[in-house]
Amino acid sequence: MADRLAELPGGPDELALLVRHLLIHREEAGRFGCALPESRYRSEAETRYIDDILDIVTQLDKAPLTAPRRPLDRFAGTCRDFALLHCALLRHTGTPARVRCGYATYFAPGFHDDHWVTEYVHPERGWVLSDPQFVPDTRIESAYELDFDPLDVPRDRFLLAGEGWRRCRTGEADPKTFGVSTLGLMGLWMVRGNVVRDLAALNKAEVLPWDAWGVGDGGRRGDEEPGEAELALLDEAAQATVEADFERVRSLFLETPGLRVPETITSYQSYDGECEVRLRGDRPGS
């Protein structure tokens, strides 16, 4: 990967814009006045690894990664892929970064939509949330209708999965306001899965948004309820991830089979249905 990442910009904001120029969300082609081929719409978002994402990018357009690309010459993924690539580029250029799983309040009023963003160390402000998916390519599109800078997402506009879990468990929030608004998927089972995926991402195991295992797996529609022991474990994982207690985050991940990413996970894919996936020997994602 290193050869392809030569001569990259060094700043987090510039890297976020670069990510915007390399990726398109598979649901937003209409924003650019074009349509993705069905095969690409269904398949590219199932790509797990950074090298494979960059392979697809360079197959679509062999120009250097820093060269401008037409929307249909960009990788067609999801929010996870924007966050993952931004995180990988930040790490490559020396900025500590991680992918975070949680819920955005800027998609649908009164709803917490399943979303992934980047979190990186700002030299003056510490850990900052950045959403490269919402950085506009001003050459060909207008700015998104946001009341904040997507390169500095306020903590009350993006709830970490663990915070969402805590609020639902204490009654501060309604679980029916958490999920994917456009698909009508909602409930505590959705938050449950993201708590486990966020813990994994903090351990550099950045899986797909529909991957599940252990205590995070509630079935395709949440028909498998957790027991008291599993609820207690999820409470502990949620607290550790929100507090960024990395000693605890690491030990929970390594020492708890229900939280650690196994060799084979269940993937509830959008179009091909439920399947078992054996992961590579190296970690998922970056």
Automatic annotation (TrEMBL):
Q: Name one Pfam family in it.
A: Transglut_core
Q: Where do the Transglutaminase-like domain residues begin and end?
A: 74-132
- Domain of life, per UniProt, equals Bacteria
Native species: Streptomyces daqingensis
| Protein name (record) | Transglutaminase-like domain-containing protein
The record lists the lineage as: Bacteria, Bacillati, Actinomycetota, Actinomycetes, Kitasatosporales
